[in-house]
């Protein structure tokens, strides 16, 4: 994710710098490899986000504090993240 | 109690809080920006540029950059102190850990300054 930020900042820099830069970034994002990179970045980000929300819910004591709730919560994170990652893939392609 | 000298705030509790407050900022910004891009397919340069030209968007973006710096630092600090230990690396663990933490710190600072240049360069 640390290195993903570099890619995202590069895109932001170029797309905001000029109309031509914006067109270049847009053009670049039509390529198969670029799409794969963006999907990879979004996947890491979405999984981190979903797991992070669970973490905060657990901190607030809202996610249950039994072994059962813990197992259910971790499975829910995987399922929700997988669905979002699939949706992100659909959006990109 | 956590007393490592490279600890972000010299207090584990404060780090814990900073991690969560910054997480909320990052989550809100991510969801907003993703939502904006998804809601505006075929966006042109003028619209994209005007979004980032607005004062509130610059403040929001800068806040996110600050949150990113704090969040990444606490995260990388936690990872390095968990895994780059004497047990894993032997007697040079301290030096290796400090080096990795320094690199993370420098990289994060460079990204932060770069972000400011992007936001105020347009």
List keywords for this structure.
heterodimer; A: 93 residues; mainly alpha; 3 helical TM bundles of succinate and fumarate reductases; 86% helix; 0% strand; B: mainly alpha
Largest sheet of chain A: none
Note the gap between the termini of chain B.
Answer: 45 Å
CA-based shape of chain A:
elongated
Number of strands of chain A: 0
Poorly predicted regions of chain B: none
Total discrete domains of chain B? 1
Identify the overall geometry of chain B. Answer: elongated
What's the architecture of the largest domain in chain A in CATH terms? Answer: Up-down Bundle
**Any idea what the CATH superfamily of chain B is called?**
Fumarate reductase/succinate dehydrogenase, transmembrane subunit
Here the CATH topology of the largest domain in chain A equals 3 helical TM bundles of succinate and fumarate reductases
Oligomer: heterodimer
Helix/strand structural class of chain A: mainly alpha
Number of domains of chain A: 2
Biggest interface pair, residues each?
Answer: A-B, 20 and 23 residues
What is the percentage of strand-forming residues of chain B?
under 5%
Low-confidence stretches of chain A: none
For the record, the CATH class of the largest domain in chain A is: Mainly Alpha
CATH architecture of chain B: Up-down Bundle
What's the number of extended β-strand segments of chain B?
0
Strand content of chain A: under 5%
Which fold name fills CATH's third level, the topology of chain B?
3 helical TM bundles of succinate and fumarate reductases
């Amino acid at each position: 994710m640390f290195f993903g930020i570099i890619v995202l900042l590069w895109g932001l820099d170029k797309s905001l710098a000029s109309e031509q830069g914006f067109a270049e970034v847009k053009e670049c994002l039509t390529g198969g490899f670029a799409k794969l990179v963006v999907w990879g970045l979004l996947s890491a980000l979405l999984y981190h986000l979903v797991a992070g929300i669970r973490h905060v819910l657990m901190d607030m004591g809202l996610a249950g504090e039994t072994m059962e709730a813990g197992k259910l919560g971790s499975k829910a994170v995987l399922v929700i993240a997988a669905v979002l990652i699939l949706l992100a893939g659909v959006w990109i392609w | 109690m956590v007393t490592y000298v490279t600890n972000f705030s010299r207090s584990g509790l404060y780090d814990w809080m900073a991690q969560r407050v910054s997480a909320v900022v990052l989550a809100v910004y991510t969801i907003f920006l993703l939502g904006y891009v998804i809601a505006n397919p075929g966006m042109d340069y003028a619209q994209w540029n005007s979004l980032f030209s607005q004062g509130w968007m610059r403040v929001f973006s800068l806040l996110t950059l600050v949150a990113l710096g704090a969040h990444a630092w606490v995260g990388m600090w936690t990872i390095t102190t968990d895994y780059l230990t004497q047990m894993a690396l032997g007697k040079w663990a301290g030096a290796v850990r400090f080096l990795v933490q320094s690199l993370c710190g420098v990289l994060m600072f460079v990204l932060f300054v770069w972000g400011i240049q992007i936001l105020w360069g347009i």
